[in-house]
Amino acid sequence: MSVSSHVAVFTAHKPAPADAPRDLVGLSREEMAAAIAELGEPAFRARQLWRWIYGRGATDFAVMSDIAKPLRQRLAERFTIGRPAVAAAQASDDGTQKWLLRFADGHEVEAVHIPEDDRGTLCVSSQVGCTLTCRFCHTGTQRLVRNLQAAEIVGQVMHARGALDDWQRPEGDRRISNIVLMGMGEPLYNFDNVARALKIVMDHEGISISRRRITLSTAGVVPMMQRCGAELGVNLAVSLHAVTDELRDELVPLNRKYPIADLMAACRSYPGLNNARRITFEYVMLKGVNDTPADARALVRLIRGIPAKINLIPFNPWPGSAYDCATPEAIERFSRIVMDAGYASPVRAPRGRDILAACGQLKSESRREGSAALAARRIARETARQAARAAAG
Ligand code: SAH
């Protein structure tokens, strides 16, 4: 089944006029206070707004009952509380839900909710498309269109909380208890926006999801890993997938830039790492490619000394993918070797495969405007040339 049935083609995105209402979502607390101060309002108003927007999920100033009506009116003239639009929603037989979310310029990403017995995890995207072209990943077949803004990353969480009725639920009983940055894109290639968004998501007077319940997954953007740990303190997952540079160069082309030795060194010095806070190494199980006992033993040698757990991900197929999933026996054998060496080695249960919501299956139809514009220009040039030839002939 295709992710969405429509192909969107967009014309150039016009910047909003200077007097257009400004979106409050995505602003830091300080920025929100400054925006409110411009109206001549005291700082505590910003705190009230913050609580309404991020604590209670308000999308309309009219419901803000502790703010006087005339001020609500003025706020509504100057500001908006933005949410992405839902372009499509799908539910899997196993309870996983996927939303295709559309932003103001028409571009789209996917977000996925995965309910489990002891938690509910929301998987969010950080970019429209991706630059990494990992060979086994569906998103990797979609060129990078653009980075998401902080508001668009937070917007995925806000949308999902609304769709799952989480604004009403007390803490401890919420359907989104955990967040993983494992959707479309490479979060460490959009670090500033991801960091802004996560700071909003972690804020105690708002969505209030602790850094211990947030995991950022990277294919290994080595120079950004230190900052991620120091500034955000979230859990780190690293998409390893191969134990030799030769194979990893092919599966995860980013390895040509940041080879395994550099990646391991960055993991060893990830801030806050200890036995209670381990790095997760993700390892996709590809039949006949990286699934032998020798691979498992090499993996154990590679990560020796790093507080870690190894998440084995059965390969999730997608239309046109060139790999097969390793057999259950091969996965079991691999996992046993890693466990016997003293590492937790859970096999990630594929969730939402029937709606292409599992790891590495996400994609949207958004296309890069530049390439469409270039193509249009090329066609125009060719047409002019043909016309000139026709006139000369
Ligand atoms: N760019 C980041 C975030 C993506 S996270 C990263 O690479 O870590 C998504 C995880 O699913 C990554 O570990 C990715 O390598 C893995 N993945 C991609 N395609 C997959 C597939 N078809 N089957 C299973 N896992 C896949």
Features:
single chain; about 400 residues; alpha/beta; DNA polymerase, domain 1; TIM Barrel; 2 domains; 9-stranded mixed sheet; two-stranded parallel sheet; disordered N terminus; binds S-adenosyl-L-homocysteine
Structure write-up:
The protein is of the alpha/beta class and 393 residues long. The chain folds into two domains: 26-81, DNA polymerase, domain 1 (Orthogonal Bundle), CATH 1.10.150; 85-355, Alpha-Beta Barrel (TIM Barrel), CATH 3.20.20.70. 34% of the residues lie in helices and 16% in strands. It contains eleven helices and 13 strands. The strands form three sheets. It has a nine-stranded mixed beta sheet with strand order 3-4-5-6-9-10-11-12-13, covered by helices on one side. A two-stranded parallel ribbon has the order 1-2. Helix 5 (191-202) packs parallel to helix 6. Residues 1-13 and 375-380 have low confidence and may be disordered. S-adenosyl-L-homocysteine binds next to strand 10 and strand 12.
The CATH homologous superfamily of the largest domain: Aldolase class I
CATH architecture label of the largest domain? Alpha-Beta Barrel
**How many domains comprise the coordinates?**
2
Order of helices and strands: EHHHEEEEEEEHEHEHEHHEHEHH
Count of helix runs:
11
Radius of gyration: 23 Å
Strand portion, in percent? 15-25%
CATH fold title of the largest domain:
TIM Barrel
Question: Roughly what is the average pLDDT, rounded to an integer?
Answer: 91
Specify the CATH class of the largest domain: Alpha Beta
Helix content: 25-40%
Distance between the termini: 50 Å
Low-confidence segments, given as residue ranges, are 1-13, 375-380
Question: How would you describe the shape?
Answer: elongated
Structural class: alpha/beta
Biggest sheet details: 9 strands, mixed
User: What small ligands are held by the chains?
Assistant: S-adenosyl-L-homocysteine
